[in-house]
Amino acid sequence: MAANILSYTYEEYIERVRAFHSYAAPGVLIGGFMVDMAYRHLPEKDLYDALCETPKCLPDAVQLLTPCTVGNGWLTVINLGRFALSLYNKSTGKGVRVYIDPSRLDGWPEIKSWFFKSRAKKEQDKKALLDQIGEAAGAFLGLQRVEVAGRFMERHHRGTFAVCPGCAESYPAADGALCLGCQGMDPYVP
Amino acid sequence: MAANILSYTYEEYIERVRAFHSYAAPGVLIGGFMVDMAYRHLPEKDLYDALCETPKCLPDAVQLLTPCTVGNGWLTVINLGRFALSLYNKSTGKGVRVYIDPSRLDGWPEIKSWFFKSRAKKEQDKKALLDQIGEAAGAFLGLQRVEVAGRFMERHHRGTFAVCPGCAESYPAADGALCLGCQGMDPYVP
Lengths: 190, 190
Fold this sequence. Notes:
The structure is a homodimer. By secondary structure, chain A is of the alpha+beta class. In chain A, 31% of the residues lie in helices and 18% in strands. Chain A folds into two domains: 10-152, CATH 3.30.1330.130; 158-190, 2-Layer Sandwich (Wheat Germ Agglutinin (Isolectin 2), domain 1), CATH 3.30.60.
């Protein structure tokens, strides 16, 4: 029987992942054990923020299991291409980082081949992979104490707003005479 | 009585926002009407992706009401400082953009003063603001047809992975001899 993920059984967590992420992605399932491990090792159960080092999968594990979401600003997502996340005290930056330790994956062949993409997706045994993630229950994870750099703790207040003479929408006046979209960063075909 | 937000009443949606976002943020509530309007005007009910032009609040409305999340890659968040979102066809990029139209806010003084931050937070009447958002039901929103630029539709496949000689973690080999973290982008105090 698999270990719990915070207050959920592994099976309950899989259902929550399906509902939110649309499918039981191995990365979100492993992410659940990562959040669980980080949470258990937090220096204090105070207010904490979260940081994911990849946009893939991990942000959804954090958003499902903690109060931290992208939209409330308590979760920061950067892309270092590393499968790692941190929970840290909002005021001090001190916290814990959990990562996949490749040197501990040898006992978990399905997880290892998924993680290193060494097998074509259609040759993966999805059920065996999910079972192995539940059995391992994070046995291949590493944990570090970290202190998040100050730039991730600054609260960026938006200052005053203006109406952009280009698009007639509201934007942070500090961005300049036009909003960033009208300055050329618009994500749409003109 | 307020209009519905997709299949939810306004009151039901407020409860869902509280559970996910931790509090009934006006921006996520308005975001609900924005997603609802975008969804009703989608050219076709095909597979679509989402884009938010601000990380504030809107990503949570999208994640609560659509299958698009940050972690599954169907939601892109950029920061143009504009309170706008788009839903668009995954293959063609064609879709709709919904934004707050400042010229239509005059009938909604609580929303206008919240949006332009023209009143100190402690002087806001939170209940009046939430009621007005429900009454307005998106009456102050604008809608545009858009085509999202190709760079937001490319699927970035990660290629092969390597073990970083710096941190001994796995990273995309295309990033170089070391992972981006060990190249100096590490978010932690050394």
